[in-house]
Amino acid sequence: MRLFLVLVAIVCSSWDRGECLMLASANKSVDQQLEYRPEGPLVMCKFLPIEFIECEEPIDHKGNKTAKEEIGFGCVKFGGSRYEDVEKTKVSCTVLPDIECFGPRTFFREGVPCIKYSDHFFATTLLYSILLGFLGMDRFCLGHTGTGVGKLLTLGGMGVWWIVDVILLVTNSLQPEDGSNWNPYV
């Protein structure tokens, strides 16, 4: 550092004063960026909100616990309707190109829920169950094809199965066959 200041002093004697001040201030900004200043304007990259980063999808191990233990992260199962039932993992995230932050721009974010969404909407399925449930439309919509055919052939179990399925939907006991969660956007 002292050697650099001596060189700046020697060079400043031959240059004009404006260029010398610019060179000295450039050196000062480089030194300040080497350590994190919490009171400064830059936020640590790993603390940025989700709007400013792009994260990968959680890795699906499809029930293979050994693969998850080898890698150290990923999802063994997806879905769950209660907070306690949803598995959480870490994923690799990268800061968007035009965002300024301090620290590494690629990092792991912890606590990402193992949830995947498909084209299953709760409100739509409930309407199918109420209006066309005696034909098994709700079961077909959720991917339960076998029970949908049974419900169609028995006309909703003479109305009993129809009412039971409406109750099962409302209590969140009847869910999509593929294990995905209800899509939150209607």
Q: Give, in order, the helices and strands.
A: HHEHEEHHHHH
Which range does the strand content fall in? 5-15%
Radius of gyration: 29 Å
Shape: elongated
Number of helices: 8
Lateral strand order in the biggest sheet = 1-2-3
Mean pLDDT: 81
| Major β-sheet profile | 3 strands, antiparallel
Structural class: mainly alpha
Specify the helix fraction band.
Answer: 40-55%
- Total beta-strand segments: 3
Any low-confidence stretches, pLDDT <50, length ≥5?
16-32
Terminal Cα span: 61 Å
The oligomeric state is single chain
Keywords: Glycoprotein, Membrane, Signal, Transmembrane, Transmembrane helix
Main location: membrane
Family: Belongs to the TM2 family.
InterPro entries: TM2 (IPR007829), TM2D1-3-like (IPR050932)
